Structure formats: structure tokens, C-alpha cells
UniProtKB/TrEMBL annotation:
PROSITE patterns: ACETATE_KINASE_2 (PS01076). It comes from Kibdelosporangium banguiense. Substrate binds at residue 51. SUPFAM superfamilies: Actin-like ATPase domain. One of its GO terms (molecular function) is acetate kinase activity. The active site is at residue 105. Homodimer. This is Acetate kinase. The record marks 137, 198 as: Transition state stabilizer. Pathway: Metabolic intermediate biosynthesis; acetyl-CoA biosynthesis; acetyl-CoA from acetate: step 1/2. Belongs to the acetokinase family. The keyword ATP-binding applies. Its cofactor is Mg(2+); Mn(2+).
């Protein structure tokens, strides 16, 4: 069983031999999602894999116990939209008979070199307080790159890849030879492009101004940046792209501008992350927003001519995992359905096999 608490959805799936055989999806905890978690509805579960976006310095999945839960609870402030939901899911699942394995978004980014990981702050501050770029959406990136390799039959030419994850959270990751070398999200999942309800990157001086001038109180700032910014804050809607596009269709100017800003900031991040690669073999679009809004992806891709990116409208309008760039064009552009559950299952199975084989780390 896999549990993926995203910031706008909770996805619980049953995976067997690498394929999903049942799923329950909700936008918050309810009977649909918590029932299977109690392991009564799906009784034959061998292992439960829970997505934790923040694992701190952990590089591999781990079987949860009370001590590790307490360690992960210390990271709540660094991922307030996600970590409490993952902790709640894990605690429920731990009431059942199967072992519960935590898999981390951050693990995939452990390979990021120091030059891309260190913030330009005083060394004392960063070293003593563990301030560094962690990166998130790692499970999604791992699945998407694996899927790209399958689609092009292991053609080694696609080794330098940008993975653009467009869910409620939005990020861009530069991947070289299967390893993350840079990513837009940082110490927390706030940095980077504009998101559904998160601001993405803003001038740090602006935040200092808000606090110094007492325009926003310290205790309100997190709420403003995580819950009331991004598409939601700019358009006055929920931030779900469906609502924003509906408001734009009704002629609401704020909603139209919000989409323009979203597109612009995401293109800018894609351009920035491309510079962390030596060349660009492939650009992968994934996540709920990308999958359900190919027109928006086409609009973003349409403004990336400077990177050589081109897409074919007919292919954009098709369905399923696919190449959407013209035949022979480089970089190749892919649309891949996000399947974090398959990556969760793979990692949890591997973790259990290591333990059963007597390997402890
Ligand atoms: N069936 C759907 N039709 C249209 N858009 C959808 C649909 N499902 C999800 N989306 C879009 O995907 C977004 C959520 O993406 P997702 O990757 O599932 O989010 P999360 O970050 O919670 O994991 C929603 O805000 C919505 O815009
Ligand atoms: C890390 C993150 O923002 O995840 P999600 O898009 O699932 O909310
Ligand atoms: Mg998600």
C-alpha cells in the first residue's frame, strides 16, 4: 500500500508487482482514504510506503518506529503543508500489522553538488543551523526519468534531463545521468516557481520589509506564503488551476494575470535550471496540472524556443505518456503522468529486500 499526501490531495494506492490495482483519492483525509490505511479494507498488504516530502539528511527509505517518527516530526516547520499529513498517515498505518516504510522526496537530491546547495549566507549561520537546499518532488522525478528511459528504449542520448513537476507544488529539477544536480525548491518547498497557494521565490528584502514595517506579523508570515499566495493569492480563487481558469473565462482580470505570472515564472526557472546541465536532451512535464492542462504546457513550451524546445499540437492533444516534440528534434519533450505511488512501492520493496537480506543500511 502506498500513501502520498500531497498539498492538495491524498492518494492511497494498492500496488502489486509494479502495477497499481486499486486506489482511493481525496482532497483531504476522509473515510475513503483512511479506511484502507487501517489495513482492514485491503487486508493482504505486505508493506505500507508513506511519502514524506522532508527526510532531512536521510538518503534511503527507512522502516518507521517511534524514534524515527519523532525525528521526522522535528521537520514539520520545514514542510508545514505536507509533513503533518505524512505523520498522521504513518501513525494510522502503524496500527496495522504490516511494516511501514517512509520514502523521502529529499533523498533524490542528496547528489546535488555544494555549489548548487549552499546559500549565499554567512557560513556560521548555514553550518550551525543546517541551512541548505534540500529539494523536493524527488519521487516524482525518479519515476519520470525511469519512464522516459523506458519510452526511448534506454537510448543513452537522454541523460541530461529537466523534470518539470506541476502539481499544487511546482518545481524544476536538473538531472544528469539519473542524478539530481540542481533543483528549484530549497530549504523548504516554498522556493522556486509560483505554485497553487505558495508564493515561490520572492525577494528576501521584501519579506524583511513586511516584518520590519509590521505589515505582516511574524506568526502570520508562514500562513501568507504557504496558504494565501501563488495562484490563489493573485486571483482570489482556491488556487486549483481549474478554478483559476474558470475565473479567467468569466473575464476576471486578476485570474488572467495570475496565469500569466505562473507561466512566466515557471519558464524562467526552466531556463535557470537548464544552465545547470551541459546540454539539454529532454524536458519532462509531469504532475496533475501538466497532465490535465496540455494547453498550458504548450504555452510554457512555446516560450522556450531559446532552449530549442518545440512541441507538436496534435501530440499535445493526445493522451498517455508520450513524446510531444517533433520527430528528431532536440531536446525531446515528454508528457508523463505522475505516478509517485509506483516509485514508493519500488523503494519500499527494495528496502524490505535489503532488510530481509540482512543489509541494514
Ligand atoms: N481531473 C482533473 N481535471 C483537471 N485538473 C485536475 C484534475 N485532477 C487534478 N487536476 C489539477 O491538478 C492539480 C493537483 O495536482 P496534483 O499533482 O494531484 O497535486 P498535489 O500537489 O496535491 O499532489 C489541481 O490543482 C488541478 O488543477
Ligand atoms: C513537495 C510538494 O510541493 O509536493 P506536492 O506538489 O505534492 O504538494
Ligand atoms: Mg503531488
Amino acid at each position: 500500500m502506498t500513501v502520498n499526501p500531497g498539498s492538495s490531495s491524498i492518494k492511497v494506492s494498492l500496488v502489486e508487482n509494479g502495477g497499481e490495482i486499486d486506489r482511493a483519492v481525496a482532497d483531504r483525509w476522509d473515510g475513503v482514504t483512511s479506511e484502507p490505511l487501517r489495513q482492514s479494507e485491503w487486508p493482504d498488504v505486505d508493506v505500507v510506503a508513506v511519502r514524506f516530502v522532508h527526510g532531512g539528511d536521510r538518503r534511503t527509505p527507512v522502516v518507521l518506529d517511534e524514534e524515527i517518527l519523532a525525528e521526522l516530526a522535528n521537520l514539520v516547520a520545514l514542510a508545514p503543508l505536507h509533513q503533518p499529513r505524512s505523520l498522521m498517515a504513518a501513525k494510522l498505518a502503524m496500527l496495522g500489522p504490516a511494516p511501514v516504510v517512509a520514502c523521502f522526496d529529499t533523498s533524490f537530491h542528496a547528489s546535488i553538488p555544494e555549489a548548487a546547495r549552499v546559500y549565499g549566507l554567512p557560513r556560521d549561520l548555514t553550518v550551525h543551523n543546517g541551512l541548505r537546499r534540500y529539494g523536493f518532488h524527488g519521487l516524482s522525478c525518479q519515476y519520470a526519468t525511469r519512464r522516459v528511459t523506458e519510452l526511448i528504449h534506454n537510448d543513452p542520448a537522454a541523460t541530461q534531463v529537466l523534470c518539470v513537476h506541476m502539481g499544487a507544488g511546482v518545481s524544476v529539477t536538473a538531472i544528469r545521468d539519473g542524478h539530481s544536480v540542481d533543483t528549484s525548491m530549497g530549504f523548504t518547498p516554498l522556493e522556486g516557481p509560483v505554485m497553487a497557494t505558495r508564493s515561490g521565490s520572492v525577494d528576501p528584502g521584501l519579506l524583511v520589509h513586511l516584518l520590519e514595517q509590521k505589515i505582516v506579523r511574524v506568526e502570520e508570515l508562514s500562513d501568507v506564503l504557504y496558504h494565501h499566495s501563488g495562484l490563489a493569492g493573485m486571483s482570489g480563487t482556491s488556487g486549483d488551476l481549474r478554478d483559476v481558469l474558470a475565473a479567467r473565462a468569466r473575464g476576471e482580470r486578476d485570474a488572467a494575470l495570475a496565469v500569466e505570472v505562473y507561466v512566466h515564472r515557471l519558464r524562467r526557472e526552466i531556463g535557470a535550471l537548464a544552465a545547470s546541465l551541459d546540454r539539454l536532451d529532454a524536458v519532462v512535464f509531469t504532475g496533475g496540472v501538466a497532465v490535465h492542462n496540455p494547453d498550458l504546457v504548450a504555452e510554457i513550451a512555446g516560450g522556450l524556443g531559446v532552449l530549442g524546445v518545440r512541441v507538436v499540437n496534435r501530440l499535445m492533444a493526445a493522451h498517455g505518456d508520450r513524446v510531444v516534440s517533433p520527430w528528431g528534434a532536440l531536446p525531446r519533450v515528454f508528457m508523463i503522468t505522475d505516478r509517485e505511488e509506483l516509485e514508493l512501492a519500488k523503494q519500499a520493496e527494495a528496502a524490505m529486500a535489503r532488510i530481509e537480506g540482512g543489509v541494514t543500511s
